[in-house]
Amino acid sequence: MIIKRAEEINFGEYLIRCVALITVWAMHHMGHFMVDRFTISMIILVIILVVIWRFRHTIESRFPLRLLVSSIVAIDFWFTLPTHSASMVMTPAVSIEAVLMFFVMKLSTGRQQNLWAHNEQVAHQANYDRLTNTKNFTAYQKEIFNAFGIARTGHQPLAIAMMDIDHFKLINDQYGHLAGNQVLTEVANALKRVLLQYSENYQLYRTGGEEFTLVFPDSSAQEILAILIHCWRTVRAAEYVYDKDTIKITVSFGLTELVDHDQSPDDVYKRADHSLYISKKNGRDTITVDGKTQQLQDDSKRENYAYFVEGIYTSGRDADERRAANELTLRRYDREKQTWVIPEQRHLNINTRIELMRDVLVNSRCQSIVVSLSIANFLNQTTADKLVKFFNSPNGPEIMYIEIDRIPVLDLLIPMAAFYHESGIKIVLSQIGSNRHFEQVNASLQYIDGIKLTIQSATDAIGMPPELRKDIQFWGEIATNWKIEFIVAGVADESMFTWLQNQDYVDYLEGPYFGTAELPLLMS
Fold it and tell me: Cβ distance 462 to 468 under 8 Å?
């Protein structure tokens, strides 16, 4: 059917259904494509299909409208068929009979469809918050037990986060409850938009007045922290305007994950709630992970940061071990310890990052760079525009790779990858060895240029462990099949280097065997 429950269908699915319908329609006019009645019938059909999509919510909710639209489609089909169609001889009587039969059948199912729609509406009201249209606490209680059971039996990770809008009572007191309702709705919509960029399996629930719970199946807290930071920044950056007043909104998060001694979902929920309490206690507007509050504010000065470089080298038996590119890793100078440290969080804006990249190029012989981006930055069009402008500038890099550690949903990856590729920037997916979502990764490989496997094990007296060789070979064969580059990171010693150098499917190598990351001082 073309007409389907509105919230269950997306444009891609609807377009596929339309193409299938038009194809069948055309088959019945085979040999009569130049006849006016075919052209007229197709024009009417296309107009109807556009109307259905444009007013799908209204049509879906009212049976008389569905009956009317379906009848128009039937009339358009049966009364414009050629005299001989699909082994049938078409006469006005046959067309009238077919339309009447369709109308009666559609009418007879009206009661069942209305009952089905009513039941759907009741179920939706029982499981969804009416104000924000997010799932409610009742739905959370039903679904968390299933997610918990799958995670325990399948030995999969499960992360849960609690979120609270800071000083929400003050918003209600100062601007009124209608303003508070609007803020709740807009915050919920912002959170849903962010989550949908990463996975359709991530769920948002309104579990309290201004409190939301986020559930992340098959994901660890470490993996989810970057997503929560994306949520946190999105909410903070948005403008919330009510009755000409702009309301400043900040949020606090508490994040945890399933551990072995958890006996029920409540155990995980309570830890997330406790971390949320710590976020509030520590000044709000932050994220706490298992009791450890993250440093999220970007109040640092540019001179406290620098990109260190780590060499990436060509592989192969005939390789000259020449540095092919510099991988950039951000460092912050700790004045108390008087040393460079890895920052817990990296929130420098893109303009500052580009200036630091220019510093690397000025002080390096190698003019090819690999720079890591979060998914939020990767999908941000402003960030993409500035990176492309930098790459194409006279003092930009010769070759530029953008490295991402996870795959966004394909609908977002495809256009953004095309944008980068159009300018000659390549995309590499890292951390594939720890990525459990193989189907999602495999579906994305046609849109990226390389994959990177970071190995942790070192060789022993016997050599590289068989499991490690098998893992490298597995991903190497995938890269070969997709005709993309394969980088192995974490090369630790001569034995590992020698074995990898003799594997035809390995394109590039990096790791401590070649030296540690260092400030670029015309040495690389």
Answer: no
pLDDT at 5 (0 to 100): 45
Determine whether 520 is exposed, middle or buried from the number of CB atoms within 10 Å of its CB (0-12, 13-18, 19+). Answer: buried
Task: Report the distance separating Cα 507 and Cα 501, nearest Å.
Answer: 9
Cβ count near 351 (within 10 Å): 12
- Mean pLDDT computed over 298-320: 74
- Encoding tokens for residue 204? 């948002």
Tokens matching residue 322: 């020449």
Positive or negative CA dihedral for 298, 299, 303, 305? negative
Q: Which two tokens stand for residue 39?
A: 């052209």
What would the two tokens of residue 416 be? Answer: 């953004």
d(CA 90, CA 97) in angstroms, rounded, equals: 11
Residues in the chain: 524
Q: Tell me how far CA of residue 321 lies from CA of 32, 315, 318, 459, in angstroms.
A: 67, 7, 9, 21
Determine the Cα–Cα distance for residues 459 and 443; give it in Å rounded to an integer: 33
Angle made by CA atoms 298, 346, 185, in degrees to the nearest 5? 70
Q: Which two tokens mark 61?
A: 């909710």
- What is the tens place of the pLDDT at every residue in 435-454? 567 888 889 999 999 999 99
- The token pair at 448 is 């990226």
Q: State how far the Cα of 354 lies from the Cα of 366, in Å rounded to an integer.
A: 17
Structure tokens at 327: 């991988």
Amino acid identity of residue 266, one-letter, is: D
What is the rounded CA–CA span in Å between residue 464 and residue 20? Answer: 53
Q: What is the pLDDT of residue 4?
A: 44
Nearest to 495, CA basis, from 469, 473, 476: 469
Is this model's pTM higher than 0.70 or not?
A: yes
